[in-house]
Design a protein that fits this description.
The structure holds 2 protein chains of 2 kinds. By secondary structure, chain A is mainly beta. Chain A has strands at residues 4-5, 10-14, 19-25, 32-38, 45-51, 56-59, 62-67, 72-77, 86-93, 102-103, 107-112. Chain A is globular, with a radius of gyration of 13 Å. The radius of gyration of chain B is 13 Å and the shape is globular. The chains are: A mainly beta, B mainly beta.
Chain lengths: 113, 115
């Protein structure tokens, strides 16, 4: 019973173009969401977050959009760079009581030069 | 640079054995969380510790236990190993009390194989 789904296991994008990574969730109680990036042999690195009171959060080339009615969030990377090639995880939590995050299975992004 | 280290990098055990995994958090980080990442899946929360006390736990049985020490190191202990315990184990430290908005810094993980 996956509460957080990332239905695209992999994605290839040309350098300079936009990368859009998608995440769907089933638990309507989730109110805080994060994206992590993971390189091989390294731990996940925090990228960007969004609270359910917002529908968009931006940080440089990275923007996260949240559609609560659709229980869907997406991460936009513009422009994509070869160094962005990694596995991206979305994660969700209920309340601000702890780090009991539920992670999706990840999407492998390949940015082609 | 995260400053979170884990040892060992890889470990092979047999079913029924016990294992201890270690994590060294960034100095000043009072919260450490442990995650299990099975192949092809995202990390799954095991538990978190704040100042040496467990203050959150995921859906894992009691044979998964932990310790946190005043020197910002911590341990994950797993008793009676099962084949399904084979996974990458990640620890993550954070500066605050361990709320969801505290940024977590992950270590590179320990790959455990149970035969």
């Amino acid at each position: 019973d996956q509460q957080v789904k990332q239905n695209s296991p992999s994605l290839s994008v040309q350098e300079g173009r936009i990368s859009i990574l998608n995440c769907d969730y089933t638990n309507s109680m989730f109110d805080y969401f994060l994206w992590y990036k993971k390189y091989p042999a390294e731990g996940p690195t925090f990228l960007i977050s969004i609270s359910s009171i917002k529908d968009k959060n931006e940080d440089g080339r990275f923007t996260v959009f949240l559609n609560k009615s659709a229980k869907h969030l997406s991460l936009h990377i513009v422009p994509s760079q070869p160094g962005d090639s990694a596995v991206y995880f979305c994660a969700a939590s209920v309340g601000n009581y702890g780090q009991n995050f539920v992670f999706g299975p990840g999407t492998r992004l390949s940015v082609l030069p | 640079e995260t400053g979170v280290t884990q040892s060992p990098t890889h470990l092979i055990k047999t079913r029924g054995q016990q294992v201890t995994l270690r994590c060294s958090s960034q100095s000043g980080h009072n919260t450490v969380s442990w995650y299990q990442q099975a192949l092809g899946q995202g990390p799954q929360f095991i538990f978190q510790y704040y100042r040496e006390e467990e203050n959150g736990r995921g859906n894992f049985p009691p044979r998964f236990s932990g310790l946190q020490f005043p020197n910002y190191s911590s341990e994950l202990n797993v008793n009676a190993l099962e084949l399904d315990d084979s996974a990458l184990y990640l620890c993550a430290s954070s500066l605050g009390f361990g709320t969801s908005t505290d940024t977590q810094y992950f270590g590179p993980g320990t790959r455990l194989t149970v035969l």
